[in-house]
Amino acid sequence: MGRAATPVALVASMAMLSASFGCAWADVKLTGAGATFPYPLYSKWFDMYNKKTGVEINYQSIGSGGGIQQVKAGTVDFGASDAPLTNARLKEMPRNVIHFPTVAGAVVLAYNLPSVKEPIQLTPDAVTGIYLGKITMWNDKRIVAANPGVALPGAPILPVHRSDGSGTTYIFVSYLSAVSREWKDLVGANTSVSWPVGIGGKGNEGVAGLIRQTPNSIGYVELAYAKQNNFTVARVQNSSGKFIEPSLASTTAAAAGAAAALAKDVRTPIVNSPAPDAYPIAGLTYLLVYQEQKDDAKARALRDFIAWANTEGQEVAETLDYARLPEPVVQVNEANLMKLTVRGKPIVASK
C-alpha cells in the first residue's frame, strides 16, 4: 500500500519518534486491558516491541466493555475496544480520549455441522433470522435456498453468542442492525445486548469452546480464532449480492471501501461495506488513550509504541489475518499522536 504525501512537519516528528525506539524508555512498563478480538495480534506486537525496545506491555484480554471501564477508572495506561466510544460515552470519561485504530478484522460465523462437508452460504435474512429465533432448523427453506445441492440436516440450530461485554459482539450486532430494521428496533447495537435466543460463552475462547463441543451450533468469533480452532465458517452475502468468504483480502476491501469516511471520523462503522468484494461483518479495533497524560515516561513510551504499531506493526498484521489500516487512517493516527500532552505540553517531539 503506497503512502500519500504527508506534511513535512509531521514527517519530521514521526522520524524523531522512530529514532527514539529502544533508546529512552527501556525500563518502562505499560498496562492495558480490553478487546479479545485483536489479542492474537497484540500479543505478537507486545513481544516484538519488548525485544526491540525493552518496554514491557502487560495486556489483560478481558473484552472491550471491561477495557472501557478500566480506562475510565484510570487503572490502566490504555484501553482497547472494538466498539468506539459514542459522543455520550466520551462525555462520561474524566478527560478527553483519543481513538487510535490499529487494524481491521473480520467477525466470522463458525458452525459445527459434522454431516455437511461444503462451506454453507448465509444471506443477511438468514443470519438475522437465526439470531432472532425465527429460523430454528438447519433445513429451513431460507437456508436451503442459498445452498443448492447441500444436504442440510433436519436438526435444531443452537446460536452461540458472547456473555461478556464485547467489541466482537458490537461488530456483529452492528452488522445485524445495518441489514435488519427489525433487529435494530428490537435489539440494537452495543457491546452487550439482550439476546432473543441462544447461549453465551465468555470471550472468543468461550464461544469457540461451545461451538467445538456442540453439534449443530453456530456462533461468531474473530477470524484468527476460527482458524486456530479449524472451524468451518460460512460465506456471507454482502450488499452487492455476492457470497463472500472471510479472508484478509475481503476484510481489506471492507476497510478500503470506508477509507474516505474513516478519514473524517475513525469511529465510522465498516460493516456491510458497499465495496463489491468486501466481507460484510468487519470492523476496526482501537486503542483508547487519554490526550492528557500524567506520567512523563509512560506517556512517551506509549506514544512511541503507537507510532511503531502504526508503521512497523502494520507489516506483521497480515500474517495473522488482520487487515492493515487504510492510508488515510494511518495519517489520522499520526496527527493525533501530536495531540498527546503531559501537563498541557505536547510530547510528540520530545525525549
Automatic annotation (TrEMBL):
Biological process annotations from GO: phosphate ion transmembrane transport
Signal sequence extent: 1-26
Record-annotated PBP domain positions: 26-309
Entry's Gene Ontology molecular function annotations: phosphate ion binding
Keywords assigned: Phosphate transport, Signal, Transport
Any one of the GO CC terms: ATP-binding cassette (ABC) transporter complex
InterPro entries: ABC_phos-bd_PstS (IPR005673), PBP_domain (IPR024370), Phosphate-bind_PstS (IPR050962)
Domain of life: Bacteria
Pfam families: PBP_like_2 (PF12849)
Family statement: Belongs to the PstS family.
Name used for this protein in its record: Phosphate-binding protein
Source organism of the structure: Eiseniibacteriota bacterium
Gene, per the UniProt record: pstS
